[in-house]
Structures are given as structure tokens and as C-alpha cells.
Amino acid sequence: MAIPDFIRTIRADAGQQLLWLPGVTAIVFDDEGRVLLGRRSDNGRWSVIGGIPDPGEQPADCAVREVYEETAVHCVPERVVLVQALEQVTYENGDTCQYMDITLRCRAVGGEARVNDDESLEVGWFAVDALPDLHEFSLFRIKQALADEPTWFAPVTRP
């Protein structure tokens, strides 16, 4: 996946030490109730759409930008689905990051789904009862986006 320029600048000083970063995931539905997915170029797996906000960028603006950059679909964020601190990840180059993911349910309002950058091999709309093989990360977010429930967050672990 593409590394934003501001992270390259931070890495020049911080090296490969752990960076705590925001992340935004967009669960996009069309008028038929299908969900938008992309098959990632870094691992070949189908996934929901997401990315890292630019400094000062609002999560909803990030969702709209990432969806368009990756799929050429225009969307409108509707609500926050979940907020979750993810597990630490170490990339092939040795960089370590941990993300605070904000997932938004979005509605498609235009554009034709297609590969729009080098982060995806394919993009497409899928019926929620006919999804390709997805990691639990994506499945959980789709499930929460479909539920008419308050924003999900991990249970409090301290008294």
C-alpha cells in the first residue's frame, strides 16, 4: 500500500519504531444493498476500503477520498459504525504501526466501480449473502454497518 508523504517524513526521524496512527474504513453500500470491495494489490485478498487520513483531514473526508481514489465511486458517509484500536502490525520493510480505526457506513451516490489506483487489482459490488473470502476485519465491519445499533467499541477493561 502507498505510504503517505507525511509518514515518510516521520519515518526519516523515527526509523522503524512504533507509530500510533489514525485509520479510516469505509463500508459502502449501493441502492441494491451490495457492498463495495477491493482486491488488494499487496496481498491479493478482497477487503473493505480504507486508508490513513492526511494531517488535519476529518475521518468522513478521508473515507470519501479513499473510496474515490481506490474505486472511482463517490460516496456520502452516513454514520460511525465502530471505533477500535487494532493490533500492532509490522510490515515487510520492518516498519511498525498500530492504528485507531474509525469505520464509517457510507452510501454510494455516483461513479462506476473500477480500479482507480495501484492499491487494488479488482474492485466490485457484492451482495452481502455472496461475499468473497474476507478477513474477519472486513466481515465484522460489514456486519456492524448492517446493524441498526449504536457505534461499537471494545468493552471497558478497567473498573
List keywords for this structure.
159 residues, alpha+beta, 5-stranded mixed β-sheet, 3-stranded antiparallel β-sheet, 8 strands
Silhouette: globular
- Helix and strand content put the structural class at alpha+beta
What gyration radius follows from the Cα positions, in whole Å? 16 Å
Q: Count the E strands.
A: 8
Distance between the termini: 39 Å
How many helices? 3
Q: Strand share of the residues? A: 35-45%
Element-by-element helix/strand order: HEEEEHEEEEH
Largest sheet descriptor: 5 strands, mixed
Low-confidence regions? none
Oligomeric description of these chains: single chain
Percent helix, as a range, is 10-25%
**Overall pLDDT, averaged?**
95
Short account of what is shown:
The chain has helices spanning 5-14, 59-71, 136-146; strands spanning 19-29, 35-40, 46-47, 49-51, 74-85, 89-90, 96-110, 120-126.
